[in-house]
Specification:
The protein has about 350 residues and is of the alpha/beta class. It contains eight helices and 13 strands. Bound molecules: NADP nicotinamide-adenine-dinucleotide phosphate (NAP) and ligand 3JN. The site of NADP nicotinamide-adenine-dinucleotide phosphate (NAP) has 28 residues, from helix 1, helix 2, helix 4 and helix 8.
Length: about 350
């Protein structure tokens, strides 16, 4: 089997760390692994397949001989270094929002639109969607194909790991402080996150929505290849470490029953139906965390409209929402294109 030279950009971060783990767990055919981060990480090492590898400082010459670059060091780093990597012959799978809405760059969830990967040749970059979008479209695509979704109303309950390693630490420290009757230190979020819910993810835009909410609106239309789907989102940060939960309401053109949705999703790739509410069985963040599946439950007909469905969708935001989706894209690349 052919081996590939792979670079992880942002290797010391929450997403980058998980990418290294997923590459190992899925036995991705890595010949050489280059770990890249900022100057702050110079001298650090990380473990891959039991071997300790040095973290190198990202620079313009980092991509010589690298075939696949998995980027998760923030939008401005991708904007600068993804084109440099592409020019060096490295195919970039970018986890940031820098290129997601560029018309000539594919935005890919392998269970939904793997065919879009073919367009990577235009700029050498494939964009990985936002975590909240990914888990939603994995669950909705089979329903869209069968009954055509006209409108989506989604509210998210997002884990702090979506903000990175500093936010994971902030929730830990605030929880510990409050349990010890000490004042919580607020640094990462605009308000205390422990024992709280913040209806504010990313920055507010002119239209009153946050950027995170508009990512869900715009990315969903692009991935589903249907600009006519109406999407409205409210994104909320909750004091959970791993896995985003979503309350999703859809209106379809064709009537589809809750039972039909359950049986469609039972065979959908990447989806696990967890839906026996009488036995108190429904998707939970603590069950999704660390796993690869998108869990779907609480599937029921919306009795307020003729063709509506409600559901609860949960997935590990760092795995399916970021690292796993990126590695799956890389798997498609090596199996079909490289
Ligand atoms: P994180 O835990 O804060 O890690 C940030 C990573 O970026 C670290 O490895 C950091 O290196 C590196 N970095 C920062 N500035 C750099 C620079 N100037 N040069 C090189 N490396 C630099 O954040 P995270 O949660 O892993 O997220 C990182 C990015 O991934 C986010 O900004 C976002 O764009 C993307 N992301 C996407 C999703 C998604 O929904 N698909 C989810 C989460 C994150 P040091 O350790 O050396 O500082
Ligand atoms: O907050 C979350 O749960 C997901 C965060 C994603 C994120 C965080 C910082 C910058 C993104 C993203 O992937 O959309 C970005 C960004 O690249 O814009």
């Amino acid at each position: 089997m052919k081996n590939y030279s792979v670079a992880v950009v942002g290797a010391t971060g929450a997403v980058g760390n998980e990418m290294i783990k997923v590459l190992e767990q899925r036995r991705f055919p890595v010949g050489k692994l280059t770990l890249l981060a900022s100057e702050r990480s110079a001298g650090k090492t990380l473990t891959f397949r039991g071997e300790s590898l040095p973290v190198q400082v990202l620079g313009e010459n980092s991509f010589t001989g690298v075939q696949i670059g998995l980027f998760s060091a923030g939008g401005s780093i991708s904007e600068k270094f993804a084109p440099i990597a592409a020019r060096a012959g490295c195919v970039v799978v970018d986890n940031t929002s820098a290129f997601r809405m560029a018309p000539d760059i594919p935005l890919v969830v392998p269970e939904v639109n793997p065919e879009a990967i073919a367009k990577y040749t235009t700029r050498g970059i494939i964009a990985n969607p936002n975590c909240s979008t990914i888990q939603m479209v994995v669950a909705l695509k089979p329903i869209h194909d069968t009954a055509r979704i006209k409108r989506i109303v989604v509210s998210t309950y997002q884990a702090v790991s979506g903000t990175g390693k500093k936010a994971i630490e902030e929730l830990t420290l605030q929880t510990r402080a409050l349990m010890n009757d000490e004042p919580p230190v607020v640094k990462v979020y605009p308000h205390q996150i422990a024992f709280n819910c913040l209806p504010h993810i990313d920055v507010f835009l002119e239209n009153g929505y946050t950027k995170e909410e508009m990512k869900m609106v715009n990315e969903t239309k692009k991935i589903m290849n249907d600009p006519a789907i109406a999407v409205t989102a409210t994104t909320v940060r909750v004091p959970v470490f791993y896995a985003h939960s979503e309350s999703v309401n859809i209106e379809t053109e064709k009537k589809i029953t809750a039972d039909e949705v359950r049986s469609l999703l039972a065979t959908a790739p990447g989806v696990k139906v967890v839906d026996s509410p009488r036995e108190k069985v429904y998707p939970l963040a603590i069950d999704a965390a660390g796993g690869d599946d998108t869990l779907v439950g609480r599937i029921r007909e919306d009795e307020s409209i003729p063709n509506g469905i409600n559901m609860w969708i949960v997935a590990d935001n760092i795995r399916k929402g970021a690292a796993l989706n990126a590695v799956q894209i890389a798997e498609h690349l090596i199996n079909g294109y490289l």
